[in-house]
Amino acid sequence: DTTHLNMGFSLAQGYQLVDRDCLAVLCSYGDMLIESLCKDASKGHAVTKILAFSLLSIILGADSYQNWLKHLTSKGYLKHFVESVCQDNQNLLLGLSTDNIKPLFIYEAKLSFFIQIAQTDVGANALLESGIVSRLTELTILHQLPLSTDLYQQHQLVLPAFTLLTSLMTSLGNKHVVANREVSHFVCAHSELISGILKTAPGVERTKHDYEELNVVTCLLAWQRSNQQQMRKDDAVNIQMQSTSIQLQRHMINLLTAIQLPGKAVPNDVDPSVQTLRLQILTNVVSYCVTSMGTGSTIHAIFTSELSSNKGNNNNLNLLITLLQKALDGSSHHADSYTQLLHKSMHVQQMSTEEQRELASAVAMDIEKCSAHQRTKYAEIQLAKLADHKDKELTLYTQLIENLVFIVWQHVNYYMIYCGNKTDLSIEPGPKRLHSSTTNHNDSLKQLSRDLPLHLSEPFLKKIVDFCSAKTNATLTASFTSALVRRIKKLMSA
């Protein structure tokens, strides 16, 4: 672990030094340079605008003191760039109708510039105050694409807009009332587009671009859903969002069966990044489900109590437990892979020349001209990248497993305690009435009591606790998951 961390720190430190030196050179030109770039981004030709926005993004990324951002806001440039999104909308509609892709490249460069600004809370607040969410809400090109627009051009339009919003919300936090209302309005305005991204036609295989869009959309919906609970019930936007949420929730839950977790053996023709995207999407959807159940004394069951595979209804406890089992299996495989990568990173010198070349070729070109020492260093860098990637995937697995355990506990508690004490379920707050009569209700609860210990066996529950305790650095989170497992056991034995 120490070797891996040291290599990662050295790389990060090296990039910081380069950024610092480059920024020092750029700052030596004073305000004249930033003024020139802003004017080029505002009034230059298409290529000039694209280059200006790209350079501004790089500079803002390196400026840890945010001096350039302060200049952009104080001089009104940021406000101007945000307002120009309205004109971009018209240019895109006209350009894509006539096969002119210059407006599309300008749009991409501009939103990449906004995404860079949104990485900090100061930048995110500046964008919000400049009205960026409202401008994106008014971006009709997102759901009024000309017939001549191909799928990749649609991807170029959709992905930056949703990535910007997710970056913005991540920086602002989950208790920003203004941002929450504006994002909810955005979701309502583009609900048809969002629904189209969430669902896919039968027999159509999703591409990497589809998964990228799904990732940012599900991430945004999970964030928005968690904050919708904090809005006043009589809020106009919240009332509008409630009707939209019913349809979106159905599409989101369907993804739990439509998206498969990465398996132990990844086919050679499958991009590893696609596997990570699938894991991230499922993590987003499960987080969405957690907040959809409600908080406090008001809990809404969104999964029915069936524990058997039911072709007519997959929205049940069996789905959750099956997904939890697959997540545990996948996490075990990833944990083994992570350990192996760390072992290799500490013993690069013992690897064969061919193995070193294969790893080094992913970092440097023309590896044959490198010395043995350089080849070893490049191999170490690649192993550090692979180990870091596995570690991030394990973090996603941890979040997924912990949230699934929480949802399972909430539903078991709901059916065994809340429903067990009721004789009439006509006011059950679930997605539909689970039982048609008291007799059926009692029979279903008895069936649940009998079958649940078979699905949530002692070895299975122990595996959950062992994984979370081993992976989670935050003891509080691991202890919480262990407490939930104990509560599930108690409910089953009651």
Helical fraction: over 70%
* Low-pLDDT residue intervals, each spanning 5 or more residues: 1-11, 422-439
Using the alpha-carbon principal axes, give the shape: globular
Tally of extended strands?
0
The SSE string, one letter per element, is HHHHHHHHHHHHHHHHHHHHH
Beta-strand portion reads under 5%
Structure annotation, total helices: 21
Topology (elements, then pairings):
Elements: H1 2-27, H2 31-43, H3 46-62, H4 67-74, H5 77-83, H6 85-97, H7 102-117, H8 121-129, H9 132-137, H10 151-172, H11 177-189, H12 191-198, H13 208-228, H14 236-258, H15 272-292, H16 317-345, H17 353-360, H18 372-418, H19 438-455, H20 458-471, H21 475-493
Helix pairs in contact: 1-18, 2-3, 3-7, 6-7, 7-10, 8-10, 10-13, 11-13, 11-14, 12-14, 13-15, 14-15, 15-18, 16-18, 16-20, 17-18, 18-20, 18-21, 20-21
Question: How would you portray this structure in words?
Answer:
Helix 11 packs across helix 13 (208-228) and helix 18 (372-418) packs parallel to helix 21 (475-493). The protein has 494 residues and is mostly helical. The protein has helices spanning 2-27, 31-43, 46-62, 67-74, 77-83, 85-97, 102-117, 121-129, 132-137, 151-172, 177-189, 191-198, 208-228, 236-258, 272-292, 317-345, 353-360, 372-418, 438-455, 458-471, 475-493. The protein is built from 21 helices and no strands. The longest helix is centred in the last third of the chain and has 47 residues, at 372-418. The model is unreliable at 1-11 and 422-439 (pLDDT under 50).
